[in-house]
Amino acid sequence: MGRVELSLGPPHGKQVHGIVRDRDGRPVAGASVSAEYEDEAPSTQTDASGRYTLETFSGARLEATEGARYATASVSGANVDREQIDLVLEDLADDYPIEESDEPSSRSLARQNTPRSIIRTTGST
């Protein structure tokens, strides 16, 4: 099977906003949220209602952390000015259990599942 790549020009700048919640659906205040794209990594913290807003680009990798909990998502490539991405924090211990090897001092992390996120694209071009 072949692969086709299309160059659609420079990434589209957009405002990303949303709510960071825990597994039980409660908003998480004070969570760190960052959006990594090439050499840029704007970051912010959620407010008392778990809300955040960042200026970033289409295709950026969004990450939220709070203590030992985290969530990730990708900003869509949609050509819109605003995008809503709500994130659900998962416990690191659940997703990265420590695996023991034959070597007593050797430990590694194994990824078991992906944190959940909800992406809603809104706005105009």
What's the domain count?
A: 1
The CATH class name reads Mainly Beta
Fold-level CATH name:
Immunoglobulin-like
The number of strands is 11
Please give the order of strands in the largest beta sheet.
3-2-5-6-8
The number of helical segments is 1
The amount of beta strand, in percent, is over 45%
Question: Which structural class fits the helix and strand makeup?
Answer: mainly beta
What is the CATH superfamily classification?
Carboxypeptidase-like, regulatory domain
Termini gap: 34 Å
Helix content: under 10%
What is the makeup of the main sheet? 5 strands, antiparallel
How do the helices and strands follow one another from N- to C-terminus? EEEEEEEEHEEE
Question: What is the C-alpha radius of gyration, as a whole number of Å?
Answer: 17 Å
Poorly predicted runs = 103-116
| Architecture per CATH nomenclature, i.e. the level-2 architecture | Sandwich
Specify the overall morphology.
Answer: globular
What do the pLDDT scores average to?
79
Tell me what you see in this structure:
By secondary structure, the chain is mostly beta strands. It has one domain (13-122): Carboxypeptidase-like, regulatory domain (Immunoglobulin-like), CATH 2.60.40.1120. The protein has one helix and eleven strands. The longest helix has 4 residues, at 92-95. It is globular.
List the helices and strands and how they pair.
Blueprint lengths: L12 E9 L10 E5 L6 E3 L5 E7 L3 E6 L2 E6 L7 E7 L1 E2 H4 L2 E3 L6 E3 L7 E6 L3
Parallel strand pairs: 1-7
Antiparallel strand pairs: 1-4, 2-3, 2-5, 5-6, 6-8, 7-11, 9-10
